[in-house]
Amino acid sequence: MIKIVVAGPRGKMGSEALRLIEKTDHFELVGAIDRKHDGMKLKDIKGLPPFDAPVYTSAEQALHELEPDVLIDLTTPDAGYFHTRLAIENRVSPVVGTTGFSQEQLDLLAELAEEKEVGAIIAPNFAVGAVLMMQFAKWAAKYFPDVEIIEKHHDNKLDAPSGTAVKTAELIQEVREEKQQGHPDEKEILQGSRGANVKGMHIHSVRLPGLIAHQEVIFGGTGQTLTIRHDSYHRESFMTGVKLAVEEVGKLNGLVYGLENLLE
Ligand code: NAP
To answer: Is the pTM of this model over 0.85?
Structure first.
C-alpha cells in the first residue's frame, strides 16, 4: 500500500488525483493539504469523494503527523515549490504536476533530493500522448530546424508559456543548432506578435475558456510542413502518468524531471 497526501485536493487536477486514488487498490489517501479547510475531513468538503482522511492547512504538520510515502502536488508554482522542498527535506517522495518552476528552483530541488537520497518526480505533463508528442518533435527537429510551438490552455492557467512548451523547446534544442527563424529584417508591429523567442524558435500561448491542454509543434521545410499535435480533452488523461509516477518514485534516488524518463 502506498500512503499518499494530496496538496490542492479541490483543484481541477487535485480532485482528479483523488478519484485516481479512490479506484486504485494499492493507493491509500492518508490526508490532504488545503489552505481553506484545516481540521475537516475530505468527505465534508463539497464535491470531493467520501474519504475519511484529514485536511491540514500546514503542510509541515501534515507531513510530520501522517508520515506519507508520497506527496502529490497539484497547486500553484509558489505553493508547489514550498511543498516539494518540504517533502524532500522530510524524506517524503514528491510527485509534482504543478508547473511554472524556474530552472534555478529545479536545480535546487535536484540538489536537495540527491543530498537527502529521496526519489522525486516533477513532470510538466503527465499525459502519455503529450510525452510522445514531445519525443516525436525532438526527432523531427533533426530534419526540420524551422519550428514554432503553439500551446493552448484554459484561461485559468497562471503560467505562460506552458511547462510542456518549455520542455518541448528544451528537447528540440538538444538536436537543433541555434537558428533565427523568419526574415532577418522582421519587425513586430504589435509587440509580442511573434511570441516568445527561444534560441530563434517561437512559442505562442493561447488562453481561452473551453480549452484544457493542447499543443501543436509545426515544422516547416521546402514545400512542406509537418504538424505534431496533442490534445487533452479531459484531466483524466494525466492520471495514467500520475499513477505510474506514484508507483515508481519510491524506487528512485534523486529528482527525475519529465515522465518520459519513466517510460521505456
Ligand atoms: P486549479 O484548479 O486552480 O487548482 C489549484 C489548487 O491549488 C486549488 O485547489 C487551490 O486552492 C490550491 N492552492 C492555491 N494556492 C495554494 C496554497 N498556497 N497552498 C495550498 N493550496 C493552494 O489548477 P489545476 O488546473 O488543478 O492545476 C494545478 C497545477 O497543475 C497547475 O500548476 C497546472 O499548470 C498543473 N497542471 C499540470 C499537468 C501535468 O500533467 N503535469 C496537467 C494539468 C495542469 P484555493 O481554492 O485555495 O486557491
So the answer is: yes
